[in-house]
Amino acid sequence: MRKFYSSLLFSFLFLQSQAQYCSSAATQPADEDIFNVTFQTINNSSACIGAGVGQNYTNFSSSVAPAIVWPGGTFNLSTTVGVCGNFGYSTSVAAFIDYNRNFSLTDGGEKVYASPTFQNSLPSAVFSGNVTIPITASQGLTRLRVVAVETTSSAAITACGGYNWGETEDYSIMILPQPIANDMGMSVFNNPLPTECLTKNTSITVTVFNYGTNNQMNVPIHLSVSGANTANVSAVIPGTFNSFTEQQFTFTGIDLSNYGSNTIKVFTGLLTDGRPTNDTVTVIRTFAGPAPMPYSENFESGVTPPGYVGNMIINSAFGVMHGNGGSKGMYFNLWNGATSFTETLPKVGTLRNDAVFSFDYRIVNRTGYLNPGGVGTTTLSDDSLTLWMSSDCGTTFQHVQTITGVQHTATNAFKNIKVLIKRQSRN
Ligand SMILES: [Ca+2]
Ligand SMILES: [Ca+2]
Ligand SMILES: [Ca+2]
């Protein structure tokens, strides 16, 4: 049985590529394990999994808050190595930091610590040394990797790859300018994303960071929008804002409903702020708006029109085309085992109460396919062609109409469908 579905959907697809660090891990779970790493605000202890069984690799880069360090600063790195089980041997430790933030830990100078002598790990051994952050270090979030290996030489420890006994632990660190007492600022512009709909009631969310060593109270924050829309809002982040912590703040109900480009600026307004360079985040958010009404598309360009996303195609090489009366159109071939297809249309609007959606369609056998002509296919009762609409940029969809095998008459002629669409207003 061939099934025939169609939907008109407005949808977004986010593709995000996540760069990865090389792997590093012990191959044997017994013997040495890292029991603690202490570096600035990181003080993280971890245990064996069971008797004689330790971790080979543990990633604390998300679960442990990043240590804040700064170029030119010197910080103590202390690693405690113990044993899982009853056997401990000569152990060395090395540490690596991705100073240039290129997701590689093997660049020159990125082996930031190598224990000068080995120690026996039974019952435990503390490896301690200083790490000086280079002036040239790239500022932002990056990776600290600590590797403990059963070996007499830390020179043999590399940032990537496997080794027999020991453990690798990964942490995040944040490289920032050297902190001063009073320094509020922005760290991330969270929303709206570039692809989001802008409405009369847009929420604008940012992440604010207290980069200073002082806690702050009731930090002022301001929003300014210029361009297609204008807004100026001042607010206060209530309560205590602790040093080296972040908080999200959202401005709600911002009217960005005019189509066009907006410059959105959010900034902190701490009067005593000693470093204004990090106070402001600025983004451009553009909402081109929907195609104006009345909207029509006849596909005569011979290529898929802008904004059409889905399975249907225009086959311009096929002389008879796929449209009504020898014109061009979009089609999908269900012959080869596909049971459904979806095509989304570009945004259109604003719709009046008496708006009508109209389209031509036919379902014919592949064999003997001609235009005009071909052989109309008898569809089954559970075959269907469904129309959905969204009035909130694809967050939710409302069912508009379904043509089933019951209503569909097998014919080789195009059938014109007219659907009265209830007013769909942007919110
Ligand atoms: Ca551990
Ligand atoms: Ca690097
Ligand atoms: Ca500041």
Total count of strands: 27
Q: Extract low-pLDDT stretches.
A: 1-17
Number of helices: 0
Write the H/E string, N to C: EEEEEEEEEEEEEEEEEEEEEEEEEEE
Bound molecules: calcium ion
Between the first and last Cα atoms, what is the distance in angstroms? 42 Å
Strand-pairing-aware structural class: mainly beta
* Overall radius of gyration: 31 Å
The major sheet is characterized as: 8 strands, mixed
Portion in strands: 35-45%
Q: Which homologous superfamily in CATH is the superfamily of the largest domain?
A: Immunoglobulins
Which CATH first-tier class of the largest domain would you pick? Mainly Beta
Helix content: under 10%
**What is the total number of structural domains?**
3
CATH topology of the largest domain: Immunoglobulin-like
Tell me, what's the shape? flat
CATH architecture assignment name of the largest domain: Sandwich
The average pLDDT score comes to 88
Account of the 3D structure:
The protein is 0% helix and 43% strand. It has strands at residues 24-28, 31-39, 42-45, 57-59, 67-69, 74-84, 90-97, 111-114, 119-120, 124-132, 140-149, 161-175, 184-191, 202-210, 216-227, 231-241, 246-254, 260-268, 280-287, 291-292, 309-310, 343-344, 348-349, 356-361, 384-389, 398-404, 415-420. The strands form eight sheets. Strands 1, 4, 5, 7, 8, 9, 11 and 12 form an eight-stranded mixed β-sheet that branches. Strands 3-2-6-10 form a four-stranded antiparallel β-sheet, with no helix packed on it. It has a four-stranded antiparallel β-sheet with strand order 16-15-18-19, with no helix packed on it. It is flat and about 85 Å long. It has three domains: 24-175, Immunoglobulin-like (Sandwich); 184-287, Immunoglobulins (Immunoglobulin-like), CATH 2.60.40; 292-427, no CATH class. The protein binds calcium ion (3 copies). Residues 183-185, 273, 275-276, 278-279 line the site of one calcium ion (CA).
